[in-house]
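Field notebook, page 768. I keep forgetting to write these up properly, so this time I am using the form the group agreed on. The chain and the ligand, beta-D-glucopyranose, are recorded exactly as supplied. Prediction of the bound pose follows.
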Amino acid sequence: MSEQFKVYKARARELVAQMTLEEKARLLSGNGAWTTHKIERLGVPSIYMTDGPHGLRKSQGPSMADAVPATCFPTASALASSWDTDLLRQVGVALARESQANDVQLLLGPGINMKRSPLGGRNFEYFSEDPILAGQLAAAYIQGVQSEGVGTSLKHFAVNNQEHERMISNSTLDERTLREIYLPAFEIAITQAQPWTVMCAYNKVNGVYASENHLLLEDILREEWGFEGFVVSDWGAVHDRVKGVTAGLNLEMPGSGEVNRKKIIDGVNSGLLPVARLDEVVTTLLAVVLKASESRKPGARFDADQHHALARQVAGESIILLKNDDNLLPLEAGKKKKLAVIGAFAKEPRYQGAGSSQVNPTRISNAYDELVTLLGGTERLSYASGYDLEGVTTPQLLEEARQQAREADVAIVFAGLPDSYESEGFDRAALDIPEGHNRLIDVVSQVQPNTVVVLMNGSSIAMPWVGRVKALLEGWLTGQAGGGAIADILTGKVNPSAKLAETFPMRLEDTPTATEFPGLNQQAQYGEGVFIGYRYYDKKNLTPLFPFGFGLSYTTFAYSELTLSAPSIQDTGTLTVQLKVRNTGKVAGKEIVQLYVREDKPVLSRPEKELKAFTKVALEPGEEKTVSFTLKQRDFAYYNTPLHRWTVNPGRFDILVGSSSRNLPLRKHVEVEAGPAAVPALTRNSTVKEFKNHPKGKAVYPQLTKVFLGEPPAQTNVKRTPQEERARQKAEMSTMVFLHDMPVYKLVNFSEGRFTEQALNELLAQVQ
Ligand code: BGC
């Protein structure tokens, strides 16, 4: 435990010792929607918490619109596309300054659930389909926020990947999938950044509510990962409060008045809830409350202009150039082209998602006005709305757009998902954007060969027109300054440098969860196991519309000279990977270098490759830099379910480096040797083949096969014809097939006692 936290915990312990049972129970439930209870008698302060994650939503009344003005940064899908941990840290610092200025002690974010399906209603609030990327970005965000004395709440823990029946649905998955896909982002964020709080999810995980899940809240979160802070329920996620306290849920939000307070008191009085357990849960909560309260900065202010400028910069780093035929972009100001700006989103952008994360922005920039500013006036620009804000078009709107597109040199069509298509609280029904948007793009691209599409959406979408437009920008939900950032990129003031943190599939039918998303009737079966996102498209050999990790730039990059620090390593050691990346174009740019690991001969079905490291490198034209990554045990390991731990299967691993999950030009391999710790102990349930492949077991393996096969032929004097020998070998092979998958204890029965229990025990003793 960190020194600082120890001090708060000691003070909290002293205070808890002076509390009545009623006071303890009171503290464990909020005082209304956003604050904790005070205990004046003991000088226990209350703290204020609020959403999160990409801006502050401090409510001033019942409606979302009543929130205090705050900077709306790009939402998580956009932030993640920057692949830039430093940037996430800066956003975190800015969010914390706004929190301090509004006397908010805890910001409810970041959200890091995996994007299991593109239809997930809250995908816009989550980072990625990949746990390493999501975890590292979350860690940086948390470090940024907490460096300014404001706490975070890492959410929603865990396996919360659909909105449908979100308060009751049961996420059913196997242990390996839980460990390899759904937990690592949390693990990285917690072990690297120690958020002050974690928010448990609404749903059940393997039949147990996340808010009552001892395995998740205690065994994994605190015992394994060393989480020091408190767990808060998602708003309304509490079911059986006593079970929750027992499992490690500290704070119930929002407050339930006397309802659950009474249950806790009754639980203690009836002996169901031990006082020691109650004290522990209250102490942890109180320690964070004390720390958060003492980190207040009374009188703090934030610079709204500066934060708006930061939001513009961040959006510029998050907008992805997905297509740019004939280098149509950038539209350099000097070339004096006539531009038709088409689509209502150009003037009324969709820049954030709906639900608890909805910020009341300090201002909003739109792409049309920003283009006017950058191009020095309206002279070269025309505008047609093309559709209404629900995405509905009319023959008249289409005709107006067609006219303007025809008269211009370039048409820029703004399209995407309206609010009603994507929100917290429900999942999307399809990948499609509104028919009105599709028709508009069709009409424009028929008359204007130089058509650019700019998308505003929180998750991947279908693009039936993608082959008919020359350039494509994925803007995501760019936040309040997105209009400026889009204009910066269109005009080349900013060189795009973002890449996809989620795959864009060709069709919904191609997605990993096509047959079962969302899980209906309160059951979400994670049948696709570890194969989500690019892991699935790789395994099925499907070509996505745009692959994970993909994004273009106005310059080009070349990769070379991959070197590994050693041809082979022990799994306890490290491997240093180096390579060179050069800017081979004419403008400065940034490249996101990605490293994936592939196991050559896995013992169980593993993804073709997995992202293990990445970095973003800024390069002037012609400049070359060396990039270095360090890999360790976990980067080669899989989760070994029978052993309940991470294990490296010794052998060859490929190291793949490049610019996207489908463009990895550099490749080398390393042999990873696993020490005895990685090898499971042999028991009477181990199969005969496990003895064969085991460092100790292989010595006694002949004794096992002998039980069935007798002495090896070389040691007998029997003479056989070639036919007899072939027949003998065939029979031996069949026996071996049968024998290899047999647990060794069965040899006693099958040998009719020739191989005795005692012989078995002696043999097992030899291999321990
Ligand atoms: C959401 C959380 C949010 C909380 C408070 C819940 O409905 O799931 O993400 O932090 O409300 O607004």
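OBSERVATIONS:
- The mean pLDDT is 95.
- Residues 51-52, 108, 155, 234-235, 356 surround beta-D-glucopyranose (CB under 6 Å).
FOLLOW-UP: compare against the apo run.
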